[in-house]
Amino acid sequence: MSTETRMAAGFLLALGLLICSCNREPNLPVAPPQPNGGRLPLKAGHWAGTMQSNLVNFYIDSIASDHVAIHLNGGSISPTAKNTPGNPVSFSDRPTTCKRNADGVSFDCLRYKDMHIDNGFLCGVYQLYGQVFYPCFASVQ
């Protein structure tokens, strides 16, 4: 093989290696969004998620300067749930209004406190029968 042929072959080999090394990274799975501690402006919408053995649908119907109109519904996700006064199989709260806090991006209701939108999630504090939960409900499109 002549010197020119070897040089051309070497050049083509180097070019091939260079092209192969420029391939994109494989498509790695993207982690789903999570609450990140931020507080976004309140907006009307529907959020849902589980709290203990219940599925909760939380609706913000409208937002005013001093209050937020909401309603909730949901039910047990346990196949063996028994309907009792303290733990009904399903529930629906009639629409109500909650006090909008001075920060303008959160509101307080009877049991739900410091409800705010965090990276698209509706998060806050829920208190019932001496128990405290910190739900973050995902947005339902």
Question: What does this molecule look like?
Answer:
The structure is a single chain. The chain is mainly β and 141 residues long. It has a domain at 45-139. Helices cover 13% and strands 45% of the residues. It contains 1 helix and 9 strands; from the N terminus they run H-E-E-E-E-E-E-E-E-E. Strands 1-2-3-4-5-6-7-9 form an 8-stranded antiparallel beta barrel. The radius of gyration is 27 Å and the shape is elongated.
Q: Which oligomeric state applies?
A: single chain
Q: Evaluate the radius of gyration.
A: 27 Å
SS summary, helix count: 1
Q: Indicate the low-confidence ranges by residue numbers.
A: none
Give me the strand/helix succession: HEEEEEEEEE
The main sheet orders its strands as 1-2-3-4-5-6-7-9
Q: On the 0-100 scale, what is the average pLDDT?
A: 86
The total strand number stands at 9
Helix content bin: 10-25%
Helix vs. strand class = mainly beta
CA(first)-CA(last) distance: 67 Å
Shape descriptor: elongated
Largest sheet: 8 strands, antiparallel, barrel
Proportion of residues in extended strands: 35-45%
List the helices and strands and how they pair.
Elements: H1 3-21, E1 45-51, E2 54-63, E3 67-76, E4 90-100, E5 106-108, E6 112-118, E7 121-128, E8 131-133, E9 136-139
Antiparallel strand pairs: 1-2, 1-9, 2-3, 3-4, 4-5, 5-6, 6-7, 7-8, 7-9
